[in-house]
Amino acid sequence: MPSTFLGLNTGLSGLNYQQSNLNTAAHNISNADVKGYSRQTVLAQAADALRVNNAYGMMGTGVKATGITQLRNIYYDTKYHSAQSQYSEYNGVQEQLTQLQSYLNEMQSETGYTKLLSKLSGAMQDLASSPADATYRTQFIQSAQNFTDLIKETATNYRKTQQDINNEVAIHVDTINSIASQIYTLNQQIMNIETRGGNANDLRDQRENLVDSLSELVNVTVTETPIKYGFGENAVESGASRYEVRIGSTVLVDEMECKQLKVVARQEKINQNDIDGLYDVYWEGLNNTIGEQFNFNSENVTGRLKGLLQVRDGNNANPFSGTITSMAMGTGNGSTATVKLDNAISVDKLNLPSSGIITLNCKNYYYDSWEATKDADGNLTSFIFKNLTVEDETGKRVPATFDAGLDVGKEAIMGDRVDCKGIPYYMTQLNEFARTLSKYMNDIFTTGVDANGDAGMDFFTAPDIEGNDYVLTGNGGGASLASVDSSYYRITALNWGINQDILKDESKLVVSYKEDIEQGNKDAKGVLEKIIAGMDDRSMFSQGTVAQFLQAITTSQAVDISKYTAFSKNMNEVATVIDNQRKSVSSVDTNEEASSLVIYQNGFDLASKVISVMNEVYDKLINQTGV
After folding, report:
1. What is the distance between the alpha carbons of residues 121 and 367, in angstroms, rounded to a whole number?
2. How far apart are CA 594 and CA 588, in angstroms?
3. pTM exceeds 0.85
4. Three-state SS at 538
5. Sign of the Cα pseudo-torsion (45, 47, 53, 56, in order)
6. What span, in angstroms and rounded, lies between the C-alpha atoms of 13 and 30?
């Protein structure tokens, strides 16, 4: 038998339910412009009915609000994180390559390589008209120096960009750590509230905003699993859930732990022109130690951080690599390893540091020098790395020991195969340009004599550590090349320049052959004519002439920029579409909320009317019935 006052309680339940709806709608409207806020709604169901012993069986008892939930679609969140991560990667590469492209200044008429090459060509023609004129000699020398300065400035700017990217990598790693810590704190707060039957929707929104920000830096995978008490069929849901964020296959943060990343400066270079102290990223181990290295070169890793590292370390998937042919432990000369290259390489394209670190059969070894073997064409085919050392448990370098038989035939590699034409790739290109042009021209200059009849010297060269110019012509021959030799390997785009003796004394510039000078023919220009012809020699580079080689660099950059611009635009559009789709579910539409307010108000008024009517009924029943 239902209570006499059941109708009043039924009306009260409707009043409370509509009041909850009004309060929730007010909360939605207040947060309509808050970034990342998810619209909330009241969940309800019919209250438990009463069994009555009559023909009609059950009697309703009103409505029961079961909770307030967010309107979010996990599928859209997952797709958005993936698209946003890929967009950030492509956009990061495009931004950095655009900056690299600007350094050759081709669009600036007075400083671009086309203008400087034109001035150099003009200076050659002027000198050819009067080879003995000191003014024209000085003009030619200065024009050549301006051109080498452009290449040096370009290479210097590339290194500055590499340094800037390196600093940005450290900043982003700190940001990832900070976001992970915040997510971990929110996980604890949300679990504490929800296990007590509470509502943590606003904290969940904060957590999702953090995951959105994290997905810009590195791709993430989020899983949420209800936490249950007990086992099997008797398990009961606690009301809370386990929220797990992964980067790749590694858990970054869940309700139990919050992992951190560390940046560790390299002790040795991987590429000849790398800046000192490039950062590698590792997972933090116990007690602030260094754990496993984070492999950003993996195919399942995306994000802005990967895009930056691709430009910083990009070698067009062509690092120094080969096969171990022998390893020997020694005393006097230390342990050595011989590596046969996968593909023979010319000295002009060699990007190997004179001392550094090489991975032999998946283990890192430090070397302090190397010696290479040449084939009949003068290309380098194998390298002997000398005085190998390894790090012990304390981080101290000790002489390397190994079982040579286990390593022979295994891979040797320096760095990773980074499939992007980044700074190491273009620095190698600039080195090749400086070395090839220097050797080509020096071989011509040194066949003649200067104005004083003295043997010609190298026109293009580079200073050694003591400030003296390397003597290149006549060196680097033979069947081998060592890292300590005075060879064209010593020239890089960073130190390329004009012979200091020629800069100080224009008479040392070679324009004529010995017999012409001996005969007193000061207007002879046999050497100079070959130099002029060399500027248009298409056989100097595989790309063609001097100008065409530099044009190939800028063209390659333009093509890659266009590619990554298209990729980033497409992924941005995809991310925008997905974001609009998830906003259609979770964002607040003020017009819709205003309409809902009217509906909730009518419901509230009707529930109030029920109570008012029931009040009159009870008044009649209690106060006006009977004696």
Report:
1. 44
2. 11
3. yes
4. coil
5. negative
6. 26
